[in-house]
Structure formats: C-alpha cells, structure tokens
Amino acid sequence: MKNQRSYFKNNYDLYLMLLPAVAFYLIFKYTPMYGLLISFQDFNLFKGVFHSKWVGLDVFRDLLDQHMFWQSFGATLRLNLLTLAVGFPAPIVLALLLNEVANDKFKRVIQSISYMPHFISWVVVYGMIVTFVMPNTGFANVLLKQIGLPQIDFLTNLHWWLVTYIGSSVWKEIGFSSILYLAALSSIDSALYESADIDGAGRFRKIWHVTLPGIRSTVVILLILQVGRLVTIGFEQPYLFGNAMVSDYSNVLSVYIYKNGILQSQWSLATAMGLFLSVINFILLMLANVIATKMGESGLFGGKAR
Amino acid sequence: MNRKKTSVFSVVNYTLLTLVSLTFLYPFLYTIAVSFSGPQAILSGHVFLWPVGSNTGAYQALFKDASMIHALLFTAQLTVFGVLASLAMTVVTAYPLSKKELKGKNILLNLIIFTMYFNGGMIPNYLLIKQLGLLDRIGALFLPGLIDTFLLIIMLNYFRGLPVEIEEAAKVEGANNFRIFRSVVIPLSMPVIATLIIFYAVGYWNSFFDALLYMQSTDKYTLQLKLYIVLNALDSYSTSQVESYSNQIIPENLKAATVLVATVPILIVYPFLQKYFIKGVTIGAIKG
Asked: Which residue has the higher pLDDT, B279 or A73?
C-alpha cells in the first residue's frame, strides 16, 4: 500500500504527460474504428450510428457483386505489383553502387540529392511531369520529335501511363528507400572484406560473397513488409495521375472509396469497402510479421514493445 | 581496395551515379526554365534547361492573385502551428512511454502501435471530422494527424537509448520527472527533435488530400490544393490570369511558376536540414 502510494507520488507526472495522447488516440484513431459499424447499416447521415437501420451483411453482398469494386481491386494489385517489381530492387542497386564509392564527399552529395524527391509533394511531382511530357511543348516530346520518333501520350496512353506512374514513384522514393540498405551495408564487419582481400577476391566476388549476404536480412524483411502492403495504396498519386483515358488502371481502391463515399455519399458502401480492405491488409501484415519472425529476424515489432 | 581493378569500375560507377542524381535535379531545372521563358520559346519547344528570355509575367500574375497569397499564408500558418503542436505532443508522449518501469506502459504502447496496422479509414474519419464540427476549419488539417505514430516510435527509441546515469544523477539532486524531462532529456535530444520537425513540417506543407477532403471554402485551401486547381484549370483563375497577361504568359508559365512556389520553401531549407533526418530514420529503422 505504502509502496503503491510512493510509486504514484514519484510517477504521477509521467501519467499526466500521457493524458493528451490518450485523448488523441481515443478520439482520432479509435472512434473511427467504431465508425466502421456503419458498414453493417443502411447509414443515414442525419440519423447517425445510433439510429440508422441495421442490415447485417447486405452492404458487403452488394459490394462483392459490384463489377467496379473488383476492377479497382485488380487495378490496385496491378499498380502495387509493378511498383514492387521495379521499385523494390532499385534502391538496393543504388545502395550497392553508393557503397562502392570511395570518395566520401561525392557519396554524401549524391545521397543528399537522391533523398530530396521524397520530400516533394505528389501534386508538385505531377505538375512537373505534366509540363515535361506535354504534347508539342514538353521537352520529352520535343526530344522525340527531334530524333524523328512519334510523340508519346505519356498520361493518356495506358501503357505509357503505367511507365510514367511507376517511373515517377521510383524517382520519388529510390533514394529515401536506400537509406536502410546503406545503414545495413555500413554495419558489415570490415574484417570480412579484409579476409576476402587476402583470399584474392575481386570487387564483384566481394559484393557477391560479403556485401549481399550482409544485407540479406534487411532485404528479406523489407520485401515481406512490402508484400504485406499489396492491397494498400496511397490516394494522392493515383488520384492525381488518373484521368478518363486511363481510368481502368488509375481507378484504384482508395480513389474508388473517395468517389463513392465522399462524392456520392454512399457512406455504408464506401465504409464497407474500407473495412474489407483494412481486414485483408491487417491479416497480410500479421502474416508478414509472423514470417519475418520465423525467419529469425526481429520482425516488425523488433523488440521495441518489450 | 583492389587498385588494379578499381579504375574502370569506378569510372562507370561515378558516371552512373552522377547521371542518376542529374535525373533528380533536372525536373526542377526544367520547371524553373519554363516558368521564366517567353511563350514563343515554350510553344516552339525550345526550352530544355535554361530559361529562354526572362519572363517574370507568371510570377507577377501569381503574386497579384489574392487567393494564391492567401493559400500561401494559410499553409505557412498551418505548418508553423501544426509543427509546434505535433512536436509537443510527440515528445511529451514518447518520454513516459520510454520508461521501462512505468506500469501500464506496454498496454498503452500496444494500443498505439495497433493503430499503425488497423484504422477506420477514409469515410469514418470524414464522418468524425464532420461530427466534431471541424469541416472547413484549420483543425481538420492538423488534429487528426497530431501524432505520427512512426515518428513517436523514433522519438521513443531515442529516449530509451539515453544513458540512465544522467537522469539518476538529476533524481538524486531532487528533480522530479517533469523537471528532468525539460532540462536534461530535451537538450540531449535535439538531433532527433530536428528530425521530427523536418518530417512534420514537410507533412503539413505538402498537405493536399486532407484539404481536398475537409476544406470547402476557397480561403481555406492549402497551397498544394491551390496548385492542383491551377494544374487542372478547374477554376476561372488560371485562364483569367493568363488572359490579362495574354501577350506575356501562357498556362505553362503559370503552372510551372505555381509548382515552384509550392515547393521552393522545401528546396531552400532542405540542404540545411538533410543531415539530421538520416540519423533519425535509421534510429527508427524499419521497426515501425
């Protein structure tokens, strides 16, 4: 009893410091989870969650019957898989190239420049691309014309749209994603390189036998995490890049939820869609975490919650 | 290093990396060039690296436009207050959670981390904001994101790594937890606090989706939303601005200039701040 009182007396200020955060997480993170209930209702904005009619799984039945839902599901997977295929190896290659640079100053400058696009908004990136690929006046098309090739509709031709979309997301994130690999590379024991030198290994043999095994666990964890996020897609890039000509590809789930929910006020349907996705996403992430932990890595929670 | 074999590989590597970094810089140079070029040069496709002519018409039109200035000031205001509020909340929350002996800490931390993997999603968030009466108010742009859980974890990991002895010594001298936090822990944490400032500031400055969702009246548009409208010529703004400068500028000028205005603050502070965040990011590593 006395012990408890002195514990509280010594620590009450720490608990006080936590109060604002508790309020924040309750209001802005947990209340919306409660709001997910409206996906089991025929939700009426004026009646609210308490008085709207419960309809069981009707909304989900409607949703799963919708052709557009499956189309945007497919569009999401398509964009995510392609981005993964190109965007995952790219930062590893960049990190490996940077790791071979002996001149520290050169390395630092290149690194700083490559991180910069991460901090630029998607609207700005889109604005620069629009100017750059504009038919007739944009430099990309001017160049094509000058070397005698036909112009390309980068933003309205389906295939070129994919190239523009994937290219710009790689451009934006390659540098920033390489940070973790560079950190892993710098923690490789230099004695390994020295003994490889003694064995007479060349640069490429050292990369193959020392460097790559040294970052293997980082690569594996990040790959699993990326796969775990396959149904998650940001809103801004597909929304900004999208247009009527490429809507089959650009109408991804986040955009679809926005259009159905916010623009057309189909609250229950759009919420059900979100819930469906959140559940898939949660399961994928948990699986990813279990797999990463099983492989002897520290996993997503990496000892931080202990 | 193996001297004999380095030369060819190094030349290729350095050239490759230089080219790669040029692709990061070039879009900015091109946009600058277009924004300052004369209409004729742009339309005939003569602009590729350097401005052709010195046309400041687009910038004059921009800064004469009250709604653009308003969006600029509104976004600056959002960034300053948002960063202050987020920083205070994050640091104050991370400190007690970094204490190993604090009872109930694990439950709370797990409930917080859970929100990184599961959330209500777009529509319930929107309905909450609506119910709280925050639609079309600046609060809708910073309250829902007051604490970025990933950044909270970074701060938390840093606090955990601080040597216990320093705090013990302060405790012996009779300082309470809050006092230790304020006058010992905070001064030791400046590098990570700088990281938080960068990430929060960039987040608020680039605020687009939240503004698209929650803001209705034009005087509450963030700069990115305003830029979006200019890019898509969704209002009469760009066309009327262009018309009044008809022989000096074309929409391309205006779009390029707006893109730059929307990102120049980041480009200016970036070189000074970039040395901080690398450390911060690797502290948090992929654990979040």
From this structure: A73
For residue A180, the distance in angstroms to the closest alpha carbon of chain B comes to: 7
Residue A23, C-beta contacts closer than 8 angstroms, at least 6 positions apart? none
Residues 6+ apart with CB under 8 A from B170: B179, B180, B183, B184
Domain residue spans of chain A: 44-121+148-294
Amino acid at B110: N
- The three-class DSSP label of residue A42 is strand
pLDDT at A68 over 70: yes
Domains and CATH numbers, chain B: 1-55 (no CATH), 58-287 (1.10.3720.10)
Which of B225-243 are b and which e, b meaning 16 or more Cβ less than 10 Å from the residue's Cβ?
bbbbbbbeeeeebbeebbe
Best B123, B157, B231, B254 member to test A by mutation, with max A CBs in 10 Å, is B123
Name which of A280, A29, A181 is nearest B152 in CA terms.
A29
Question: Which of A18, A100, A274 is the closest to B13 by Cβ?
Answer: A100
pTM: 0.90
Measured between beta carbons, the chain A residues lying within 8 angstroms of B277 are 115
Q: How many CB atoms lie within 10 A of CB B161?
A: 10
For the A44-121+148-294 domain, the top CATH level (class) is mainly alpha
ipTM (interface pTM):
0.89
- A282 contact residues in B (CB cutoff 8 A): 117-118
